[in-house]
Amino acid sequence: MTTFTRRGCVMTGLAAVAALTLASPAPGSTTDTANTANTAKAAPRRATPVRMTLPAPTGPYQVGVTSLHLVDRARRDPWVAARPYRELMVSVRYPARAAGGHPRAPQMLPGEAAAFEDWSNFSADIPKGLADWGATLAHAHLDAPVARHSGRGFPVLIYSPGAADPRSLGSTLADELASRGYAVVSVDHTYEAPGVQFPDGRVARTRMPEEAGKAKTPAQVTELLKKLTAVRVADTRFVLDELGRSALPRPLRGALDLRAVGMFGQSGGGFTAAQAMHDDRRIKAAVNMDGVMGYTQRDDDPAHPSTVGTDGLDRPLLLMGKEGDDHHTVASWKAVWEHSSGWHRDLTLTGAAHASFTDAQSLVPQLAGQDGEGGLSRKTVEKLVGTVAPDRSVAVQRACVTAFFDRWLRGRGGKLLDGPSARFPEIRFVR
């Protein structure tokens, strides 16, 4: 999720949801196919939209991916009252034995790309028509055969995206972790993401601008943030339930080790990871990438703490923040830090911005103006993804997140998270 500013206050977690109406009008329709306006300032147009690429994974495995359509009939949809059940789409990435004959998966399906173009967290900064969101390919191959595994299967990692972001914006890190022997389950939070495309072609469009528009008072904003987090945690727990109920296609059954589950996410997804671990003992370790963990409109405001803040955690937590975000400056991080008995670390990625912890780190710089053609200014690029070199930012995140889960889900050694490393001078350990 990108960073918004309101009345001089920088907001980087779920708090940015309260500012969504500044970026775009509400969809204005209760149907799944409502259209929204893009409000980015006009910029010189390129002759054709930019086609972007994502960095390839570096692990020893090729990567396969399949999608699951999960239906929770025990829960009404919390965002659309007329729907008597909750539907989710998730992607499962896994180590593959071979990828020949299996095409690379699109980062976004056509309906998701169209919805993202119409409205997203980037709408105020990226002009409509500049990017070809539907052209980017992930490095996971559709339904490739699963690699051989031990009797326990591959450790499982749940990925939750930033508030109002699609699961596809975490493709780079998900592909990397799968290439290193993990099964990565990425969750779209329906009616929160810009668009979620189901197997029958339906596209559930976001309701977040409309919901934010209803929150007229600080108390209502707080309640919206609480609801959004509660929905996300409930989605996560349902997905874990379904994975244990043979929701997987036959080739993947027995390939996932549900006794070794971790979770990671950016922004609101990082908060979701920490809160879900607090609420569900099945989650053994979590990574929060620049996500505020309280129900507040200001990062430095300790009001309205979450239970993960008041109780802390007794299992491992890795905090990764942009420049300026750490447990000394973000009140909710301070609360979790002081109340946690489990292993915890606080790392700053120097030169990073909030969206650096998503695929935007690689994609946005490709939208910069070149050769006199229209594109994003350097100022806009740095606003969205900071000044850190994209390849270094990606390398740091891959190394740190992999090292964290290797330590706590696989029991493997390694000293990367014990202190500063000459290999990764971009990481600062916050004491």
TrEMBL record:
Tell me the keywords, alphabetical order.
Answer: Hydrolase, Lipid degradation, Lipid metabolism, Signal
Q: Which domain of life is it from?
A: Bacteria
Which is an annotated Pfam family here? PAF-AH_p_II
- From the Swiss-Prot or TrEMBL record, give the protein name: Alpha/beta hydrolase family protein
Extract the Gene3D superfamilies matched here: alpha/beta hydrolase
Which residue stretches belong to region Disordered?
A: 25-58
Q: Which InterPro entries match?
A: AB_hydrolase_fold (IPR029058)
Question: From which residue to which does the signal peptide run?
Answer: 1-28
Q: In what ranges is there compositional bias, type Low complexity?
A: 25-49
- State which residue ranges cross the membrane: none
Q: Which organism is it from?
A: Streptomyces rimosus subsp. rimosus
Q: Which residues form a coiled coil?
A: none
Query: Which Gene Ontology terms cover its molecular function?
Result: hydrolase activity
